[in-house]
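Hi support team,

I've been running sequence recovery on a batch of backbones for a student project. Most finish fine, but this one hangs at about 90% for roughly twenty minutes before it completes. I'm not sure whether the input is malformed or the queue is just slow. I've pasted the structure tokens below so you can try to reproduce it. Let me know if you need the job ID as well.

Thanks,
M.K.
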């Protein structure tokens, strides 16, 4: 009920913004000014990537904590064996060459061959691979992580999806980012392994390239870096300090990110530690995934909206507000279209609205950010950058109807949506990892 009330208040506020900005000249000036502040921060993030490149990579040779790797698996027969083999090949050991990490795979009431495959693997890797068969099933990934964490022993919890792949030196490369006692978690750089399959898989890799660029900027200015579900490493003490994983959360990663932020923990982004995952091959499953992401992200902003009133740094407060605009802008767009329609129906002439002025500016900032992200990975290759930027802008349009649908759903339904896993087809299970993490 609280989420619906807060969201309704946001919608009403945006409606008032549309009316005031179109009715009063000062209102127009005020909201253009507010947009200017948001734009300035976005440009600040982009420019901060220069500072990020100069930021020294953390070195902590004496920081070698025991790591617990957790992989939730529900009906993952097509990918789980390859992922387990990949994780157990990581080289992170004590001086006597004893592996200094454990792997726990949670078989979450699978109805396919996942359980049998895991049992066979456990026989091959006694003492290294642990299987927990859960018969009842979980209502969310967060619930899996809470119960799995209680069955592990590591100081660091490393969460992987069942389709993920890492390199042998992954832990040695990643762990120095957690050596600082102020840091509670870190996110590694996600890439698409099967990006060459079709237009949609290439667009998803472009999306991740843009996300990596944004995360670099956030990390450089000590902003609110977010976890991304797979490839995230967290200190057990930090998880316990914030009360564990929120089992009702549709997106446990961004929810945990917000909890760590408001409790004073830092999150780092390791741009030089890659992790690969499988892209979704068709639009139907992708839209279902994005609807879950949108609802989880919107509810996170509502649940932790008070964060801007806590003693956070100015950068983090701006970060929270700027990225909330991802949800506010489509709502504002719809309200503006309705208002303009009423104006035209009343016989008044069409004019450039405040919203359209803001959007023109935001598109410019978005293009700069996207091209900057591609330039940082490809180098100065204008044709390649232009091609990837155009595809990304077209692809990103799907977020507008997704966010609007999510807003309506929250307003009319009293209960949150149900958590649903993303299906993996396993086409990339045997694909060798690239020599470099550069997007193509």
């Amino acid at each position: 009920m609280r989420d619906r009330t807060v969201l309704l208040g946001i919608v009403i506020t945006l409606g008032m913004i549309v009316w005031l900005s179109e009715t009063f000249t000062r209102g127009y000036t005020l909201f253009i000014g507010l947009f200017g502040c948001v734009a300035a921060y976005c440009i600040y993030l982009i420019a901060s990537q220069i500072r990020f490149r100069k930021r020294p990579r953390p070195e902590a040779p004496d920081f070698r904590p025991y790591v617990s790797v957790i992989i939730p698996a529900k009906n993952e027969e097509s990918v789980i064996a390859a992922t387990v083999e990949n994780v157990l090949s990581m080289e992170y050991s004590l001086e006597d060459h004893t592996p200094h990490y454990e792997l726990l795979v949670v078989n979450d009431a699978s109805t396919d061959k996942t359980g049998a495959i895991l049992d066979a693997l456990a026989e091959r890797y006694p003492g290294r691979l642990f299987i927990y068969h859960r018969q009842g099933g979980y209502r969310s990934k967060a619930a899996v992580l809470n119960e799995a964490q209680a069955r592990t022993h590591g100081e660091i919890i490393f969460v992987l999806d069942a389709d993920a792949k890492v390199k042998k030196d992954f832990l040695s490369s990643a762990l120095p980012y957690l050596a600082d006692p102020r840091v509670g978690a870190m996110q590694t750089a996600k890439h698409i392994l099967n990006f060459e399959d079709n237009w949609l898989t290439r667009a998803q890799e472009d999306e991740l390239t843009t996300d990596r660029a944004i995360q670099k900027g956030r990390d450089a200015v000590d902003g609110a870096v977010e976890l991304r579900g797979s490839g995230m490493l967290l200190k057990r003490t930090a998880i316990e300090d914030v009360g564990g994983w929120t089992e009702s959360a549709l997106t446990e990663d961004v929810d945990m990110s917000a909890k760590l932020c408001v409790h004073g923990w830092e999150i780092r982004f390791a741009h030089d530690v890659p992790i690969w995952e499988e892209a979704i091959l068709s639009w139907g499953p992708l839209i279902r995934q994005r609807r879950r992401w949108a609802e989880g992200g919107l509810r996170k902003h509502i649940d932790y909206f008070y964060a801007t009133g806590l003693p956070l740094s100015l950068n983090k407060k701006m970060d929270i507000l700027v990225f909330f605009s991802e949800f506010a802008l489509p709502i504002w767009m719809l309200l503006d279209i309705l208002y303009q329609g009423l104006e035209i129906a009343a016989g008044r002439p069409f004019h450039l609205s405040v919203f359209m002025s803001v959007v023109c500016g935001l598109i410019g900032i978005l293009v700069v950010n996207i091209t900057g992200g591609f330039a940082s990975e490809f180098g100065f290759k204008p044709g390649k950058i232009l091609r990837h930027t155009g595809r990304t802008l077209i692809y990103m349009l799907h977020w507008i109807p997704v966010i609007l649908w999510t807003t309506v759903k929250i307003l009319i339904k009293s209960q949150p949506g149900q958590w649903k896993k993303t299906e993996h087809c396993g086409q990339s299970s045997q694909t060798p990892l690239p020599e470099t993490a550069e997007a193509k």
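--
Follow-up from support: It reproduced on our side and the slowdown came from queue contention, not your input. Residues 130 and 248 are 26 Å apart (CA to CA). No action needed from you.
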